[in-house]
Amino acid sequence: MINRTRMFATLLALSIAAAGTSACSSDESRTERWATTENTNVKIDWDKVNEAYKQADGPADLEKRINEIYEGDELISISVNDVDAKTQVVTGFFDKDNDGQVSEPEKIFTVQRTLTGEGQAQMQTQGHGYYSGYHSPMLSIASGMLLGSMMSSMFMPSYMPVYSQPYTTSPGRRGELAGQRAGYRAANPARFSKPSQTGRSYGGGGSKSGAPARSRGGSRFGARARAASVTLLQA
After folding, report:
1. How many angstroms separate the CA atoms of 186 and 176, rounded?
2. Mean pLDDT by 10 residues, the chain (235 residues)
3. Which residues contact 184 (CB under 8 A, 6 or more apart)?
4. Are strands 167-168 and 77-82 parallel, antiparallel or unpaired?
5. CA-to-CA distance for 137 and 68, rounded, in angstroms?
6. Hey, CA dihedral for 188, 189, 193, 198, is it positive or negative?
7. For residue 88, which of 106, 68, 66, 62 has the smallest C-alpha distance?
8. Do 156 and 227 contact (CB within 8 A), yes or no?
9. What is the pTM for the complete model shown?
10. How many Å apart are CA 181 and CA 76, to the nearest integer?
């Protein structure tokens, strides 16, 4: 009888230990799942992102436009890098460690713009991380299109790619961006009033109203001199 009692006690202890290990593994799995899906419950309107790049007057104007498009709580930083005389890569990222540097896990999207001939270029946008399922078609850009100075400057004879000091949203700039976005959301409440299951308020996603006015405050990038006017450029 004693032996049976001891055996029963041993089996019960092993069962409890196994259940504890299983619960721990489940908790770890749940924690990892939420860690990998952070910042991913907010959709991005990729058509608006592409249009923002085409219409931006400079990197500062672009990051302002991108953060007006994005409907989550996080700020999106951008990096603008002229890879060579023909290719520019723009990266949107969550600067989680606030160091002003792009790291692979922080990437949201990249836009690559390439000159393909006189007065001709093409651009393509690709999502990263949770958004990696998005790949835009190859979009054609011509010098006769209505473009912001950030893109139209590449067709100018004075255009000079910037290799040594690519633009990246600075930690100090992020505070200014947060204020600008708060003002934009306050002025467009219909876009940001839809409650999520987590209690956050995100936009309706399908609204066509409330498009931001063209900003003239963006810093210039890739041109020797400030363009006198951002108008239609004739090929």
Report:
1. 16
2. 54 51 43 39 91 97 97 95 95 94 95 96 96 95 94 92 90 94 94 58 38 43 45 37
3. 68, 212
4. antiparallel
5. 23
6. positive
7. 62
8. yes
9. 0.69
10. 11
